Amino acid sequence: MQISLVGVGLMGAAMTERLLTLGHDVVVYNRTKAKCEALQQRGAVLARSAVEAIQSSSCTILMLSDAAAIHDAVFAAGKPDFQNRTVIQMGTIAPSESLALGRAIRSGLGDYFEAPVLGSITEARTGRLVVMVGGQAEHVARWNEVLTCFCHESVLVGPIGQAAALKLALNQLLAAQMTAFSVSLGLILHSGIAVETFMTVLRHSSLMASMFERKLPRMLDHDYANPRFSTGNLLKDVRLSLDAAREAKVATPSLDGIRDVFEHAVARDLGDLDYAAVFESVVPQAGHHP
């Protein structure tokens, strides 16, 4: 099958690699063409524009950073010919943005559904992402061959907008866990408690999250290079979560605080680093503790 993929950042590139590994023909487009070079060497075809990519295949995956990037790439030069084509939006955008995108594509006689993913580069390359579908059962049935490239089985959440909302609910939880774990680790370091003692107790409790184990070495070494999910991208998702929560009339003082912490990290030029770098904002003198 030939599939187009627009947006080959960290996740988009890993997903393209997965499609190529499984023997699919892939047409790629990215605003920064240099990010496509390695994929071209593996056999991907480079489109000159997002419009060309969309019109090259019956199915196009969008993995762009946000709704503004989608608009700039897809619609800035005029509406593409969507007729007899399906667009699957797999990045993280707001429910309202997904609904608006769907309307624009359907008005051009195309089809659209959302399928945001949970997981990172390793899961994308090995087909172990969690794929959440906002759309209809017919979408899952028709495009199951594409969706199961990235997961064992996709989850049909509900109509368009609901999968986008679920992804925001999960990503704000990720940001909350990272911020809370940073506070706890800061207290442990300040108190002189052995980090392994802290982790031993934590592992035997219901409070343990696998992310704590994965991110701890980065935090202790202050090494946030080669991110799988950047601080800046998680801040974007926190802001979207705040907007969605306020629309749902959910109280947001804790999420407001998390946003402030991530904004401080980005202001310290940590936006392009792994999101564990938020530890440097929570505990700015962490490197001076024993």
Essential attributes:
3-stranded mixed β-sheet, 290 residues, 6-stranded parallel β-sheet, single chain, 2 domains, 51% helix, N-(1-d-carboxylethyl)-l-norvaline Dehydrogenase, domain 2
**Mean pLDDT over the full residue set:** 95
Helix content: 40-55%
Number of domains: 2
CATH topology of the largest domain: Rossmann fold
Q: Could you give the order of strands across the largest sheet? A: 3-2-1-4-5-6
Low-pLDDT regions: none
- State the end-to-end CA separation: 56 Å
Please work out how many helical segments DSSP would assign: 14
Globally, the shape reads globular
**So, the CATH homologous superfamily of the largest domain?**
NAD(P)-binding Rossmann-like Domain
Q: What is the rounded Rg? A: 20 Å
Q: Provide the CATH architecture of the largest domain.
A: 3-Layer(aba) Sandwich
What share of residues are in beta strands? 5-15%
CATH class of the largest domain: Alpha Beta
Q: Helix/strand-derived class?
A: alpha/beta
Main sheet summary: 6 strands, parallel
Describe this structure in words.
This protein folds into two domains: 2-159, Rossmann fold (3-Layer(aba) Sandwich), CATH 3.40.50; 164-288, N-(1-d-carboxylethyl)-l-norvaline Dehydrogenase, domain 2 (Orthogonal Bundle), CATH 1.10.1040. The radius of gyration is 20 Å and the shape is globular. It is an alpha/beta fold. The protein has a six-stranded parallel beta sheet with strand order 3-2-1-4-5-6, sandwiched between helices. β1 (2-6), α1 and β2 (25-29) form a beta-alpha-beta unit. The protein has helices spanning 10-21, 37-41, 50-56, 67-74, 95-107, 121-126, 137-142, 144-147, 162-191, 195-203, 210-221, 231-247, 253-267, 279-282; strands spanning 2-6, 25-29, 45-46, 59-62, 86-89, 111-114, 117-118, 130-134, 155-158.
